[in-house]
């Protein structure tokens, strides 16, 4: 069992994160290049039915965030969600969840560094490896500063993405309503090329794992909230609304694309938003979207550096990582953890250059599905914690409807995602490698606990 009464002291509010930072960190953790560019492959594969996949994934994110929010509100000040998993399932589960989560985001850190370098290379004539290293160093310096500096950078980077989506939806709606432009057969574009499910419902189910990975990251805000003046209130506020907001952003923006241009015109790998803006005759669409995508990549890099350092520090504080990675006190920035995460992220980035088809591909496969395992642990931790609270007559803060059916359905949905991945040739290795990685980390937890 986990140690009772052990909590993680939040950073002092002085120099800490503000409410607007927390809100934008939550959005920034989810809305990334996966929407602006990666959604093209999903649209080309499934047609308009992709909206059903986005809705299904959005519901999953809403449920997980709701459960996580209630856990934090019921027992504030414990730390990140890893500590709630530890409290529910024991130290080994906490070790496993923390290291899996760190591993997932450190691979994202390296991957995004390469993506950003490839984008910047068109403007700056330097080698990709050097540009990726420079990006990591720049973000490391930002994370060396006070939390509010990180929050301010993330606020403006996320704001660029949010305003771009809102502006696109507004302009596209005016275009569809024939307020400007030559007019467009919106309904024909939407369902006139094979119907709503041109490739059948199976294609929609098969694309859910890919979409799922583009909508992960909202839980970052619950970690960041610990470094604000009112962590419990901020977590409650974010977890109640973030899932719904992000789902609506994805649904409305993709729906506008499908109304402006036929889904058959969407080319995988090319931003569907650029295609739609070119159709509407908006000048500079390509350059505009490159700037937006770059801001999305930098935002993801910034968040990855932040979350990996905080999780690593928390693990060190609980004895699950070397003590040198722990904070010296509650108000200091965990610089050693930032350095370690940035070095590992740089190594991941270099592996994509030196060995893209072996080492880097292996890392992507091992990390790709572990976030689903972590989400499952959050759901099960909620299940255990609420039952304990109800047994003790202290369940006032828990109000998730249809409990525990809702929890079991969520766990079943995650299991079905892994099943769908195993039947998909492109995703099968990711499913197997991710499950193998989860087992390996649990094995490491058992060995570590015996040594401790």
Explain the overall architecture.
It is a single chain. With 452 residues, the protein is mainly α. It has a single domain (19-391, 402-445), classed as Up-down Bundle (Amino acid/polyamine transporter I), CATH 1.20.1740. Helices cover 73% and strands 0% of the residues. The protein has 18 helices and no strands. Helix 4 packs across helix 16 (370-391). The longest helix has 33 residues, at 285-317. The relative contact order is 0.19. Residues 1-15 have low confidence and may be disordered. It is a multi-pass membrane protein. Residues 21-428 form the Amino acid permease/ SLC12A domain. This is GABA permease.
What are the key terms here?
452 residues, Amino acid/polyamine transporter I, membrane, transmembrane helix, GABA permease, mainly alpha, AA-permease/SLC12A_dom
Topology, please?
Layout: H1 19-30, H2 33-46, H3 50-74, H4 81-89, H5 91-120, H6 128-144, H7 147-176, H8 186-191, H9 200-214, H10 220-224, H11 231-260, H12 272-279, H13 285-317, H14 335-354, H15 359-368, H16 370-391, H17 405-422, H18 428-451
Helix pairs in contact: 1-7, 1-11, 2-9, 3-9, 3-11, 3-16, 4-5, 4-16, 5-6, 5-13, 5-14, 5-15, 5-16, 5-18, 6-13, 6-14, 7-11, 7-13, 9-17, 13-14, 14-15, 15-18, 16-17, 17-18
Low-confidence stretches: 1-15
- How would you name the CATH homologous superfamily? Amino acid/polyamine transporter I
Shape: globular
CATH domain class:
Mainly Alpha
Query: How many β-strand runs?
Result: 0
Subcellular location: Membrane
Membrane topology: Multi-pass membrane protein
Protein name: GABA permease
Main location: membrane
């Amino acid at each position: 069992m986990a140690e009772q009464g052990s909590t993680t002291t939040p950073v002092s509010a002085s120099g800490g994160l503000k409410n607007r930072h927390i809100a934008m960190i939550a959005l920034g953790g989810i809305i990334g290049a996966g929407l602006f560019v990666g959604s093209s492959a999903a649209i080309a594969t499934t047609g308009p039915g992709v909206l059903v996949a986005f809705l299904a994934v959005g519901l999953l994110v809403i449920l997980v965030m709701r459960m996580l929010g209630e856990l934090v509100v019921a027992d504030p000040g414990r730390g990140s969600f890893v500590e709630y998993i530890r409290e529910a399932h024991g130290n080994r589960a906490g070790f496993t969840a923390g290291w899996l989560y760190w591993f997932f985001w450190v691979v994202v850190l390296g991957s995004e560094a390469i993506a950003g370098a490839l984008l910047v290379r068109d403007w700056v004539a330097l080698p990709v490896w050097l540009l990726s290293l420079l990006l990591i160093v720049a973000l490391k310096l930002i994370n060396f500063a006070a939390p509010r500096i990180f929050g301010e950078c993330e606020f403006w980077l996320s704001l660029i993405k949010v305003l771009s989506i809102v502006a696109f939806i507004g302009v596209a709606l005016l275009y569809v309503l024939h307020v400007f432009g030559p007019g467009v057969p919106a309904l024909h574009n939407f369902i006139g090329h094979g119907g709503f499910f041109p490739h059948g419902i199976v294609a929609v189910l098969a694309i859910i794992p890919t979409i799922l990975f583009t909508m992960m990251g909202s839980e970052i805000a619950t970690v960041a909230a610990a470094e604000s003046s009112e962590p419990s209130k901020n977590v409650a506020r974010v977890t109640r609304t973030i899932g719904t907001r992000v789902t609506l952003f994805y649904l409305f923006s993709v729906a506008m694309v499908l109304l402006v241009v036929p889904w058959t015109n969407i080319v995988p790998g090319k931003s569907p938003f650029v295609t739609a803006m070119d159709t509407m005759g908006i000048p500079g669409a390509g350059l505009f979207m490159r700037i937006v995508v770059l801001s999305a990549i930098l935002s993801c890099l910034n968040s990855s550096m932040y979350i990996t350092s905080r999780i690593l520090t928390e693990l060190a504080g609980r004895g699950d990582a070397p003590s040198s990675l722990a904070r010296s006190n509650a108000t200091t920035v965990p610089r050693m953890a930032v350095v370690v995460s940035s070095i590992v992220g740089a190594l991941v980035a270099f592996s994509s250059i030196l060995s893209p088809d072996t080492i880097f591909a292996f890392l992507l496969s091992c990390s790709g599905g572990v976030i689903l395992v972590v989400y499952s642990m959050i759901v099960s931790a909620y299940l255990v914690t609420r039952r304990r609270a109800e047994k003790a007559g202290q369940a006032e803060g828990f109000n998730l409807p249809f409990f525990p059916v809702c929890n079991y359905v969520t766990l079943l949905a995650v299991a079905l995602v892994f099943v769908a991945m195993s039947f998909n040739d492109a995703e099968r290795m990711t499913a197997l490698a991710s499950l193998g990685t989860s087992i390996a980390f649990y094995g490491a937890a058992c060995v570590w606990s015996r040594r401790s």
